[in-house]
Write a structure and sequence with these properties.
There is one protein chain. A 6-stranded mixed sheet has the order 4-3-15-8-9-12. Strands 6-18-17-13-14 form a 5-stranded mixed sheet, with no helix packed on it. The protein has a 3-stranded antiparallel sheet with strand order 10-7-16. The chain is globular, with a radius of gyration of 17 Å. The chain has one domain (about 15-230): Alpha-Beta Complex (Fumarylacetoacetate hydrolase, domain 2). Helix content is about 15%, strand content about 35%. By secondary structure, it is mostly beta strands. This is Fumarylpyruvate hydrolase. Pfam families: FAA_hydrolase (PF01557). InterPro entries: Fumarylacetoacetase-like_C, Fumarylacetoacetase_C_sf. Its EC number is 3.7.1.20.
Length: about 230
């Protein structure tokens, strides 16, 4: 029996729609620049291959939560995303078999401290401080792939205080989900419990304390979030 010097932290997890069970989360991978319009609005080349960054699993936030405005930023941005939940791991996964590794789908928000990201870019430094901070990965309840199927198209949108800020279609992804899984597994061994945030459409922008965010992906689900006052 293992004896720890401190109580071990709880296992991060995501709710499952219409179930009392939860999906345990191991790691969170995020795809950067996967919608052409968003790439252009950020001043980048849409022909670049996909790249990945990560968030800690304990950055997950339950839908419907209120989180404090993050520390160390004056420019917090929203990025609505389709989330893929991995149910079967592997390395060098073939694109044609990639969808067989998916347990289900959800809707998440990649919160970004944009001012810190801009400074990191200029200094050629990692993005961790801009992306991997407390409460930076709100996620709605997952839906099993056996229920939803594997969406190739469908509206993805985010509104702030009822005003739509981001709106696009999953069909606009430069790298579809199967490609994302295949490419990611060329560099790391995917495992059951991993989540992949698959990129965001154009329209990203700032949120302030008191703002209410609501996002959805057609046929998949929704996520809601309120930004509270700073700590």
């Amino acid at each position: 029996m293992t004896v720890f010097v401190l109580p071990p932290p709880p296992t991060p997890s995501v709710a499952i729609r219409d179930s009392r069970q939860r999906f345990p989360v191991r790691r969170i991978f995020c795809v950067g620049r996967n919608y052409a319009a968003h790439i252009r609005e950020m001043g980048n080349d849409e022909r670049d291959p996909p790249f990945f960054f990560t968030k800690p699993a304990d950055a997950l936030v339950e839908t419907g939560s209120t989180i404090p405005y993050p520390l160390a930023t004056q420019n917090l941005h929203h990025e609505i995303e389709l989330v893929v939940a991995i149910g079967k791991g592997g390395v060098r996964i073939d694109r044609d078999a990639a969808l067989d590794h998916i347990w289900g789908y959800g809707v998440g928000v990649d919160l970004t401290r944009r001012d810190l990201q801009d400074m990191a870019k200029k200094a050629a430094r990692p993005w961790d401080w801009a992306k991997a901070f407390d409460d930076s990965a709100p996620c709605g309840a997952l839906i099993p792939a056996e229920t939803s199927g594997h969406p190739q198209s469908g509206r993805i949108r985010l509104a702030i205080n009822g005003e739509v800020r981001q709106e696009g279609d999953l069909a606009e992804m430069i790298w579809p989900v199967a490609d994302i899984i295949a490419i990611c597994s060329e560099a790391v061994e995917l495992q059951p419990g991993d989540l992949i945030f698959t990129g965001t459409p154009s329209g990203v922008g700032p949120v302030e304390a008191g703002d209410r965010l609501s996002g959805e992906v057609e046929g998949v689900g929704a996520v809601e979030l309120e930004i509270g006052q700073a700590r």
